[in-house]
Design a protein that fits this description.
This protein is of the alpha/beta class and 351 residues long. 30% of the residues lie in helices and 19% in strands. α1 (15-26) crosses α6 and α10 packs parallel to α11. It binds threonylcarbamoyladenylate and magnesium ion. Magnesium ion binds next to loops. Magnesium ion binds at residues 144-145, 153.
Length: 351
Protein backbone atom coordinates (compact mmCIF):
# COMPACT_ATOMS: atom_id res chain seq x y z
CA UNK A 1 0.00 0.00 0.00
CA UNK A 2 1.13 3.53 -0.67
CA UNK A 3 1.58 5.55 2.52
CA UNK A 4 1.13 9.31 2.34
CA UNK A 5 3.27 11.59 4.51
CA UNK A 6 1.41 14.69 5.73
CA UNK A 7 3.58 17.29 7.47
CA UNK A 8 1.38 19.38 9.78
CA UNK A 9 3.11 22.00 11.89
CA UNK A 10 0.20 24.37 12.32
CA UNK A 11 -3.28 22.85 12.12
CA UNK A 12 -4.95 26.25 11.78
CA UNK A 13 -3.07 27.31 8.66
CA UNK A 14 -3.00 23.73 7.32
CA UNK A 15 -6.70 22.94 7.44
CA UNK A 16 -6.42 21.11 4.09
CA UNK A 17 -3.89 18.57 5.42
CA UNK A 18 -5.97 18.15 8.59
CA UNK A 19 -9.01 17.46 6.42
CA UNK A 20 -7.09 14.86 4.37
CA UNK A 21 -6.07 12.96 7.52
CA UNK A 22 -9.62 13.17 8.92
CA UNK A 23 -11.17 12.00 5.62
CA UNK A 24 -8.97 8.88 5.53
CA UNK A 25 -10.15 8.02 9.05
CA UNK A 26 -13.81 8.71 8.22
CA UNK A 27 -13.52 6.36 5.22
CA UNK A 28 -12.18 3.48 7.32
CA UNK A 29 -8.44 4.05 6.76
CA UNK A 30 -5.52 4.20 9.19
CA UNK A 31 -3.49 7.32 9.98
CA UNK A 32 -0.55 7.65 12.39
CA UNK A 33 -1.20 10.87 14.31
CA UNK A 34 0.88 12.84 16.81
CA UNK A 35 -0.27 13.23 20.39
CA UNK A 36 1.48 14.88 23.34
CA UNK A 37 2.51 11.42 24.66
CA UNK A 38 3.47 9.22 21.67
CA UNK A 39 2.24 8.84 18.09
CA UNK A 40 -1.02 6.89 17.83
CA UNK A 41 -2.32 4.67 15.03
CA UNK A 42 -5.77 6.17 14.49
CA UNK A 43 -8.95 4.72 13.02
CA UNK A 44 -12.69 5.31 13.46
CA UNK A 45 -13.44 3.66 16.81
CA UNK A 46 -17.05 2.95 15.74
CA UNK A 47 -16.04 1.03 12.59
CA UNK A 48 -15.19 -2.63 13.40
CA UNK A 49 -13.52 -3.23 10.02
CA UNK A 50 -11.22 -0.21 10.40
CA UNK A 51 -10.36 -1.22 13.96
CA UNK A 52 -9.50 -4.77 12.85
CA UNK A 53 -6.95 -3.28 10.48
CA UNK A 54 -5.18 -1.55 13.41
CA UNK A 55 -4.56 -4.97 14.99
CA UNK A 56 -3.30 -6.39 11.68
CA UNK A 57 -0.94 -3.49 10.95
CA UNK A 58 0.59 -3.60 14.45
CA UNK A 59 0.54 -7.38 14.87
CA UNK A 60 -1.37 -6.74 18.11
CA UNK A 61 -3.25 -9.47 20.01
CA UNK A 62 -7.00 -8.97 19.38
CA UNK A 63 -7.94 -9.08 23.06
CA UNK A 64 -5.84 -5.99 23.85
CA UNK A 65 -8.37 -3.10 23.88
CA UNK A 66 -7.84 0.32 22.32
CA UNK A 67 -8.11 3.80 23.81
CA UNK A 68 -10.68 6.08 22.17
CA UNK A 69 -9.69 9.72 21.73
CA UNK A 70 -12.34 12.43 22.06
CA UNK A 71 -12.23 16.20 21.66
CA UNK A 72 -14.08 17.01 24.86
CA UNK A 73 -15.01 15.28 28.11
CA UNK A 74 -18.66 16.22 27.54
CA UNK A 75 -18.75 13.60 24.72
CA UNK A 76 -17.84 10.76 27.10
CA UNK A 77 -21.51 10.05 27.88
CA UNK A 78 -22.11 9.10 24.24
CA UNK A 79 -19.76 6.14 24.62
CA UNK A 80 -19.73 5.32 28.35
CA UNK A 81 -22.43 4.75 30.97
CA UNK A 82 -22.71 5.04 34.75
CA UNK A 83 -20.02 7.72 34.64
CA UNK A 84 -19.15 8.72 38.21
CA UNK A 85 -19.00 12.44 39.01
CA UNK A 86 -15.31 12.10 39.86
CA UNK A 87 -14.60 11.44 36.16
CA UNK A 88 -15.55 15.03 35.38
CA UNK A 89 -13.49 16.29 38.28
CA UNK A 90 -10.47 14.41 36.90
CA UNK A 91 -11.12 15.95 33.48
CA UNK A 92 -11.30 19.44 34.94
CA UNK A 93 -7.87 18.89 36.50
CA UNK A 94 -6.03 16.83 33.87
CA UNK A 95 -7.83 17.03 30.50
CA UNK A 96 -7.05 17.64 27.79
CA UNK A 97 -3.84 15.81 28.56
CA UNK A 98 -2.05 12.50 29.13
CA UNK A 99 -4.75 10.76 31.20
CA UNK A 100 -6.88 7.80 30.08
CA UNK A 101 -9.89 6.71 32.13
CA UNK A 102 -11.64 3.33 31.83
CA UNK A 103 -15.42 3.42 32.22
CA UNK A 104 -18.33 1.03 31.52
CA UNK A 105 -18.94 1.11 27.78
CA UNK A 106 -22.13 1.72 25.83
CA UNK A 107 -23.19 -0.70 23.06
CA UNK A 108 -22.12 1.68 20.28
CA UNK A 109 -18.47 0.84 21.04
CA UNK A 110 -17.78 -2.34 19.08
CA UNK A 111 -16.24 -5.37 20.79
CA UNK A 112 -13.31 -5.07 18.33
CA UNK A 113 -12.43 -1.71 19.94
CA UNK A 114 -12.89 -2.88 23.55
CA UNK A 115 -11.06 -6.17 23.00
CA UNK A 116 -14.21 -8.01 24.05
CA UNK A 117 -14.46 -6.17 27.40
CA UNK A 118 -17.53 -4.31 28.67
CA UNK A 119 -15.42 -1.21 29.36
CA UNK A 120 -13.96 1.57 27.23
CA UNK A 121 -10.79 3.61 27.74
CA UNK A 122 -11.28 7.34 27.03
CA UNK A 123 -8.65 10.02 26.55
CA UNK A 124 -8.86 13.70 25.55
CA UNK A 125 -5.45 14.51 24.04
CA UNK A 126 -4.02 18.03 24.23
CA UNK A 127 -1.85 17.97 21.09
CA UNK A 128 -3.29 20.64 18.76
CA UNK A 129 -2.87 18.46 15.64
CA UNK A 130 -4.57 15.46 17.28
CA UNK A 131 -7.39 17.75 18.45
CA UNK A 132 -7.84 19.27 14.98
CA UNK A 133 -7.98 15.81 13.34
CA UNK A 134 -10.50 14.50 15.92
CA UNK A 135 -12.69 17.59 15.41
CA UNK A 136 -12.54 17.30 11.62
CA UNK A 137 -13.23 13.54 11.61
CA UNK A 138 -16.18 14.03 14.00
CA UNK A 139 -15.84 10.42 15.18
CA UNK A 140 -14.05 9.00 18.23
CA UNK A 141 -10.56 7.93 17.14
CA UNK A 142 -9.28 4.59 18.41
CA UNK A 143 -5.50 4.81 18.65
CA UNK A 144 -2.96 2.53 20.21
CA UNK A 145 0.68 3.59 20.03
CA UNK A 146 1.77 3.55 16.37
CA UNK A 147 4.54 0.96 16.75
CA UNK A 148 4.76 -2.70 15.81
CA UNK A 149 3.50 -4.67 18.78
CA UNK A 150 6.35 -5.30 21.24
CA UNK A 151 8.55 -2.46 19.96
CA UNK A 152 9.15 0.82 21.82
CA UNK A 153 6.36 3.36 21.25
CA UNK A 154 7.03 5.99 18.54
CA UNK A 155 7.89 9.52 19.62
CA UNK A 156 8.69 10.84 16.13
CA UNK A 157 7.08 10.38 12.70
CA UNK A 158 10.29 8.62 11.60
CA UNK A 159 9.64 5.89 14.21
CA UNK A 160 6.17 5.40 12.64
CA UNK A 161 7.75 5.28 9.17
CA UNK A 162 10.23 2.63 10.40
CA UNK A 163 7.43 0.40 11.75
CA UNK A 164 4.39 1.02 9.52
CA UNK A 165 5.43 2.41 6.13
CA UNK A 166 3.47 0.65 3.36
CA UNK A 167 0.95 -0.80 5.84
CA UNK A 168 -1.26 2.23 6.51
CA UNK A 169 -2.80 5.07 4.46
CA UNK A 170 -0.96 8.03 6.03
CA UNK A 171 1.52 9.25 8.62
CA UNK A 172 1.21 12.79 9.99
CA UNK A 173 4.54 14.37 10.91
CA UNK A 174 4.30 17.06 13.58
CA UNK A 175 7.73 16.62 15.11
CA UNK A 176 8.71 15.08 18.45
CA UNK A 177 6.14 14.23 21.12
CA UNK A 178 6.57 16.37 24.22
CA UNK A 179 5.95 13.77 26.95
CA UNK A 180 7.51 10.68 25.36
CA UNK A 181 5.75 7.94 27.37
CA UNK A 182 2.13 6.87 26.96
CA UNK A 183 -0.75 8.29 28.99
CA UNK A 184 -1.53 7.40 32.58
CA UNK A 185 -4.31 4.75 32.58
CA UNK A 186 -6.73 4.46 35.48
CA UNK A 187 -9.93 2.48 35.82
CA UNK A 188 -13.09 3.82 37.42
CA UNK A 189 -14.96 0.66 36.40
CA UNK A 190 -13.64 -1.48 39.28
CA UNK A 191 -14.73 -1.37 42.93
CA UNK A 192 -11.90 1.03 43.74
CA UNK A 193 -10.10 3.43 41.40
CA UNK A 194 -6.95 1.69 40.20
CA UNK A 195 -3.83 2.90 38.42
CA UNK A 196 -3.03 0.46 35.62
CA UNK A 197 -0.29 2.32 33.77
CA UNK A 198 1.71 5.25 35.19
CA UNK A 199 2.33 8.29 32.98
CA UNK A 200 2.91 12.03 33.08
CA UNK A 201 -0.19 12.57 35.23
CA UNK A 202 1.39 11.11 38.37
CA UNK A 203 -0.07 8.91 41.11
CA UNK A 204 0.67 11.72 43.56
CA UNK A 205 -1.43 14.17 41.49
CA UNK A 206 -4.27 11.68 41.02
CA UNK A 207 -4.48 11.03 44.77
CA UNK A 208 -5.45 14.67 45.28
CA UNK A 209 -8.72 13.80 43.51
CA UNK A 210 -8.81 10.05 44.25
CA UNK A 211 -7.40 9.56 47.77
CA UNK A 212 -8.29 5.84 47.62
CA UNK A 213 -6.40 5.19 44.35
CA UNK A 214 -4.80 1.73 44.32
CA UNK A 215 -1.65 1.05 42.28
CA UNK A 216 -1.86 -2.27 40.44
CA UNK A 217 0.99 -4.60 41.40
CA UNK A 218 1.95 -5.00 37.72
CA UNK A 219 3.00 -1.32 37.59
CA UNK A 220 6.32 -2.03 39.28
CA UNK A 221 6.54 -5.79 39.02
CA UNK A 222 5.84 -8.76 36.86
CA UNK A 223 2.26 -10.01 36.70
CA UNK A 224 2.23 -13.32 38.56
CA UNK A 225 1.09 -16.41 36.64
CA UNK A 226 -2.68 -16.67 36.93
CA UNK A 227 -3.08 -13.16 38.39
CA UNK A 228 -5.88 -11.01 36.96
CA UNK A 229 -4.66 -8.65 34.24
CA UNK A 230 -7.06 -5.74 34.80
CA UNK A 231 -5.53 -4.26 31.67
CA UNK A 232 -4.83 -6.86 28.98
CA UNK A 233 -1.77 -4.88 27.86
CA UNK A 234 -0.07 -5.89 31.11
CA UNK A 235 0.31 -9.45 29.89
CA UNK A 236 2.26 -8.72 26.74
CA UNK A 237 5.96 -8.21 26.22
CA UNK A 238 6.64 -4.53 25.67
CA UNK A 239 9.14 -1.98 24.52
CA UNK A 240 11.73 -4.64 23.72
CA UNK A 241 14.81 -3.58 21.85
CA UNK A 242 16.75 -6.43 20.22
CA UNK A 243 19.44 -6.23 22.91
CA UNK A 244 19.20 -7.80 26.35
CA UNK A 245 18.64 -4.93 28.78
CA UNK A 246 19.57 -5.07 32.48
CA UNK A 247 18.77 -2.24 34.94
CA UNK A 248 21.56 -1.34 37.40
CA UNK A 249 20.56 0.59 40.54
CA UNK A 250 23.16 2.58 42.43
CA UNK A 251 25.37 5.66 42.35
CA UNK A 252 27.07 6.99 39.23
CA UNK A 253 30.40 5.69 40.60
CA UNK A 254 29.10 2.16 41.26
CA UNK A 255 27.50 2.12 37.78
CA UNK A 256 30.78 3.22 36.13
CA UNK A 257 32.75 0.61 38.12
CA UNK A 258 30.39 -2.17 37.07
CA UNK A 259 30.66 -1.18 33.41
CA UNK A 260 34.46 -0.98 33.57
CA UNK A 261 34.37 -4.69 34.50
CA UNK A 262 31.65 -5.72 32.03
CA UNK A 263 32.54 -3.97 28.75
CA UNK A 264 32.96 -5.84 25.46
CA UNK A 265 31.67 -6.30 21.92
CA UNK A 266 28.09 -4.96 21.62
CA UNK A 267 27.93 -3.72 25.23
CA UNK A 268 26.32 -0.29 25.65
CA UNK A 269 25.36 1.93 28.54
CA UNK A 270 21.92 3.58 28.63
CA UNK A 271 22.91 6.28 31.05
CA UNK A 272 22.20 9.72 32.48
CA UNK A 273 24.06 12.90 31.44
CA UNK A 274 25.77 12.86 34.84
CA UNK A 275 27.27 9.39 34.19
CA UNK A 276 28.68 9.74 30.72
CA UNK A 277 32.10 11.25 31.52
CA UNK A 278 32.87 8.39 33.94
CA UNK A 279 32.10 5.56 31.51
CA UNK A 280 34.50 3.32 29.57
CA UNK A 281 31.87 1.72 27.27
CA UNK A 282 29.89 3.39 24.45
CA UNK A 283 26.83 5.14 25.82
CA UNK A 284 23.41 6.42 24.78
CA UNK A 285 22.23 9.23 27.07
CA UNK A 286 18.54 9.32 27.98
CA UNK A 287 18.20 12.42 30.11
CA UNK A 288 19.34 13.88 33.38
CA UNK A 289 19.30 11.81 36.57
CA UNK A 290 17.37 14.53 38.39
CA UNK A 291 14.87 15.28 35.59
CA UNK A 292 12.30 12.51 35.13
CA UNK A 293 10.60 14.55 32.38
CA UNK A 294 13.76 14.45 30.26
CA UNK A 295 14.05 10.68 30.85
CA UNK A 296 10.45 10.12 29.73
CA UNK A 297 10.99 12.34 26.71
CA UNK A 298 14.04 10.40 25.50
CA UNK A 299 13.51 6.79 26.67
CA UNK A 300 11.83 5.23 23.63
CA UNK A 301 14.03 7.07 21.10
CA UNK A 302 17.10 5.90 23.06
CA UNK A 303 15.90 2.26 22.95
CA UNK A 304 15.40 2.50 19.18
CA UNK A 305 18.83 4.13 18.81
CA UNK A 306 20.44 1.18 20.64
CA UNK A 307 18.87 -1.18 18.09
CA UNK A 308 20.29 0.87 15.22
CA UNK A 309 23.74 0.74 16.86
CA UNK A 310 23.49 -3.06 17.00
CA UNK A 311 23.66 -3.24 20.79
CA UNK A 312 23.65 -6.81 22.14
CA UNK A 313 23.82 -6.07 25.86
CA UNK A 314 22.56 -2.83 27.38
CA UNK A 315 23.15 -1.79 30.99
CA UNK A 316 20.62 0.91 31.92
CA UNK A 317 21.13 3.14 34.93
CA UNK A 318 17.98 2.77 37.06
CA UNK A 319 15.75 5.86 37.48
CA UNK A 320 13.90 7.00 40.61
CA UNK A 321 10.33 5.75 40.97
CA UNK A 322 8.73 8.98 42.11
CA UNK A 323 6.54 11.30 40.07
CA UNK A 324 6.99 10.73 36.32
CA UNK A 325 9.93 8.46 37.29
CA UNK A 326 7.37 5.74 38.04
CA UNK A 327 6.26 5.80 34.39
CA UNK A 328 9.86 5.74 33.19
CA UNK A 329 10.69 2.82 35.49
CA UNK A 330 7.52 0.95 34.44
CA UNK A 331 8.54 1.11 30.75
CA UNK A 332 12.22 0.39 31.37
CA UNK A 333 11.59 -2.68 33.52
CA UNK A 334 9.48 -4.15 30.71
CA UNK A 335 12.21 -3.38 28.17
CA UNK A 336 14.54 -5.23 30.56
CA UNK A 337 12.24 -8.24 30.92
CA UNK A 338 12.32 -7.47 34.70
CA UNK A 339 16.11 -7.98 34.97
CA UNK A 340 17.43 -5.62 37.62
CA UNK A 341 20.56 -5.56 39.84
CA UNK A 342 21.37 -3.59 43.00
CA UNK A 343 24.98 -2.42 42.70
CA UNK A 344 27.41 -2.65 45.58
CA UNK A 345 28.59 0.82 46.64
CA UNK A 346 31.68 -0.73 48.23
CA UNK A 347 34.67 -0.38 45.89
CA UNK A 348 36.52 -3.50 47.02
CA UNK A 349 33.44 -5.70 46.70
CA UNK A 350 33.10 -5.92 42.90
CA UNK A 351 30.13 -7.89 41.50
O1 LIG B 1 -0.66 7.93 25.34
C1 LIG B 1 -1.37 6.98 24.98
O2 LIG B 1 -2.19 6.43 25.73
C2 LIG B 1 -1.22 6.50 23.53
C3 LIG B 1 -1.65 7.64 22.63
C4 LIG B 1 -1.67 7.27 21.17
O3 LIG B 1 -2.90 8.12 23.05
N1 LIG B 1 -1.96 5.31 23.30
C5 LIG B 1 -1.58 4.11 23.82
O4 LIG B 1 -2.40 3.04 23.49
O5 LIG B 1 -0.60 3.97 24.52
P1 LIG B 1 -1.95 1.52 23.69
O6 LIG B 1 -3.03 0.74 23.03
O7 LIG B 1 -0.59 1.33 23.21
O8 LIG B 1 -2.06 1.29 25.22
C6 LIG B 1 -3.33 1.25 25.84
C7 LIG B 1 -3.29 0.45 27.11
C8 LIG B 1 -3.09 -1.02 26.82
O9 LIG B 1 -2.23 -1.57 27.81
C9 LIG B 1 -4.51 -1.59 26.97
O10 LIG B 1 -4.49 -2.94 27.41
C10 LIG B 1 -5.11 -0.67 28.02
O11 LIG B 1 -4.54 0.60 27.77
N2 LIG B 1 -6.58 -0.58 27.85
C11 LIG B 1 -7.26 -0.02 26.84
N3 LIG B 1 -8.59 -0.17 27.00
C12 LIG B 1 -8.75 -0.84 28.16
C13 LIG B 1 -9.89 -1.33 28.89
N4 LIG B 1 -11.12 -1.14 28.44
N5 LIG B 1 -9.66 -2.00 30.04
C14 LIG B 1 -8.41 -2.19 30.50
N6 LIG B 1 -7.29 -1.76 29.86
C15 LIG B 1 -7.46 -1.10 28.71
MG1 LIG C 1 1.31 0.54 23.01
Amino acid sequence: METKLLVIKNPESQAEQVRQAADIIKKGGLVAIPTETVYGLGANALDPQAVKRIFQAKGRPQDNPLIIHLHDASEAEKYAESIPEVYYELCRRFSPGPLTVILKKKDCIPMETSGGLDTVAIRIPSHPVARAIIAAAAVPIAAPSANLSGKPSPTTAQHCVDDLWGKIEAIVDSGECAVGVESTVISLAEEQPILLRPGAVTAEQLREVLPNLVIHQAVTGELEQGAKATSPGMRYKHYSPNARVVILNGSSEAYARFLADHGGEGVYALCFEEDVSKLTVPAVVWGSRTDDGSQAHRLFAALRELDKLGAVQVYAHGPSREGVGLAVYNRLIRAAGFEELELSENESESI
